Amino acid sequence: MKRSFKTGSKIIVTGVLLVFNVLCVFPQKAVTLEEALKIAEDNSPSMKRTRLNLVRSQENLNAQNAALKSQFSLSVNPIGYNQNREFNDLISEWNSTRTVESYGLFTIAQPIVFTDAVVSLTNRFGYKDSYSEYANKTTKGFSNRLALNLDQPLFTYNRTKLQLKELRLALENAQLNYAIQLLSLEKSVTQAFYYVYQQQQSMDISNQAYQNMQKSYEVSKNKVDAGISAREEMFQAELNLASSKSEYENSQVSFENAKDEFKLLIGMSLYDDFSVLPNIAVDTVQVDITFAIDQGLANRMELRQSQISIETSQFDLIQTKALNEFKGSLGLSVGLFGDNENFGNVYKSPTDNESVELSLSIPLWDWGERKSRIKATEANIESANISYEEEQSNIILGVRKVYRNLLNLQNQIEIARQNVTNAQLTYDLNLEKYKNGDLTGMDLNIYQNQLSEKQLSYTNSLISYKLELLNLKIQTLYDFEKKIPVTPVKTIEQK
Length: 495
Hints:
By secondary structure, the protein is an alpha+beta fold. It folds into two domains: about 1-60 and about 165-310 and about 380-495, Outer membrane efflux proteins (OEP) (Up-down Bundle), CATH 1.20.1600; about 70-110 and about 115-155 and about 325-360, no CATH class. The protein contains ten helices and ten strands. The longest helix is centred in the middle third of the chain and has 68 residues, at about 160-225. The protein is elongated. The two termini are about 70 Å apart.
């Protein structure tokens, strides 16, 4: 009897000290699901990478738009010296030359998006001191060349427009990917959040069972001490108490492990402690399956990504058709040139400079390369179209599955709720029987386990319904609880 009393006292003291140490060393912070989602959006490694990809696409488009504005450039050659002896065909003699030169070139270039042309204004100003052995003469002075130039591609596709479209689609795709990642993160964080809650509930239920076993142990101990029950009942009560304590400790370990995994998922410090504050109150939601499917087909971002893939494949076809194509280029230039030994008289006698150049590229025979590459690109386009149709079917299938699961879970919740009520009443009745000596400790332990199992089953059914509602929101981009559409892409643009 003394040994049993000491064992019970040690168990109680150990439990109290354990709880006290945990509360003192790791002060807990209560975290709601909304707070966890905000932390995850800001700190999750996967969201950080997706956000950087979004920034990259946005900056690439910004850079291309900036490149389409007037470009100003200045190149300066402060000093250049050249001394050379070479054979001059004009005079059929070897001739030595020596030149000292300094010049600067200022350019304003303006791309024309509509025609894919480039209009530029150039001004080259310089000074030259040149000596020729043949003429035995030195020429020195200033010169300035001012010209307006046009370079216009002909008989080919507009590369500037196509590049702009590609970058805009890349940005839109990055935005869609960010939104999809955000919804995926919401799903995974919600699942992990409720899993922590499940482990927390499991620990609380195990603790409740442990407390009940302690009470039944005291009842059994008092009966044995009074000689009402056999000592074998005391041994069984001690075994039940030890098993209950072990279950409680196991649930504590599972709870702490679940919290650590949750911290890693949302980017929370592993040294911070927290407890979850979930809202698992369930109001059954009426879902119109036809409306849900229509919302999914109208709003799902994966469909728009498939459309972007088709458009990108069309761009690839345009570029492929330009392989070995007949094309041309037109170059126009008009300007003035002046030179003089005196700086102020450079344009005293100016000379008009004009040039027109038309060049054509005419492919003759490529052994079928262009034709084969076009067929390969067309096959990619057809594959993208098939993927688009397949994505539509997957959306319809996914919405139907979620709808059926919701209907089934509504029934499961009612059954689980009634099971908890029945199990609690059964346990209370059998506890009275145990106190009156009409039930063994082993039988009471069975009823306690049944109660714990039904309580966990009810909690799990509520969580499963909440998760399935979230899944329906992700599948349709419509919140059936709040009866409002979900627009994650607009949220991204406002960031």
